[in-house]
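Open question from group meeting: does this chain pack into something compact, or does most of it stay loose? Before anyone orders reagents, we agreed to write out a predicted structure and look at it together. Recording both the input and the output here so the notebook holds the full record.
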Amino acid sequence: MKKASEYRYLEASIIRNGRGERIRTFDPLVPNQMRYQAALRPDRRYSNRMALRALPWVNLFPHTIGCMSQPSPVLPLLMPGDEFPDVALAWGEASDAPGLLAAGGALSVQTLQQAYQRGIFPWFSPGQPTLWWSPDPRMVLQVAHFRLHHSMRKTLQRFACSPHCEVRIDSAFEQVIAACAQLPRGGSNGTWIVPSMVDAYTQLHTVGLAHSVETWVHGEMVGGLYCVALGHAVFGESMFARQSDASKIALAALVGFCRHHGVTMIDCQQNTRHLASLGAAEMSRSRFVAHVQQAAQRSAPDWQFSPLYWNHIFRLPELPP
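Structure tokens returned:
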């Protein structure tokens, strides 16, 4: 692993605009596309136009720079083949983008596998370099703590008993990730699943490291999710629904699959109220990474779904309506 001094860096600088107001020239996340928006200070204002001031040896986004002022945080710029920095170097909670670790590198199968093994994942918007994240704490769903509400139990029971409904795994991965990429996101004009991400995760699927869990009704896929899996380490990525509860059914099916095969945890990456209502909770990054490194060494389960896996869900205690 490189020392911190051996990485190239991008600078985040403070400049003054035409009205004399101080603005940042490197905003890793456009405001309407912030994945960790809740972690940011609500009184911090951002320019809607992202600009990046690079050091002299790199020019990713040409723009005009005004008068610079105070010292700025730095971000390692990875070249293809570079190892990732230690996750302890990721931007902290007090920063504008908690968990941001590095930029650049390659979205190859090997790089993605190395990233996930270290508790790192990519996320970026169109027009940005590849950005790598390792937030602390990490939101995870321990499958033993999955919360099954009364109404959802009824929905799952009807689904499991219907001859017209089924869960499939890996029958339509490309359609699932395409549907997730096209799904409008609240407060966003675009998607974080850009074409290069679609290509990269499709390659992961081809080599057996990414999977889709799909909800089918009357021969039509109405919802689903996709995830990355290294041995017994499972990382939830995104989901979509074209009918009510279709994505929740896919998630419940994944939980049942994991419980059957002894997979104890599903990474959820970000803390949301919805995930918390399903039993997900925060975990320290150090503990999460230790779990991933141990779970990834175990043999991968057979990624096929059996209706018998619903029994692992229906045995869960029922929560009040």
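Observations to bring back to the group:
The chain has two domains: 1-136, 139-319.
Residues 1-136 form a domain with the Alpha-Beta Plaits fold (CATH 3.30.70.3550).
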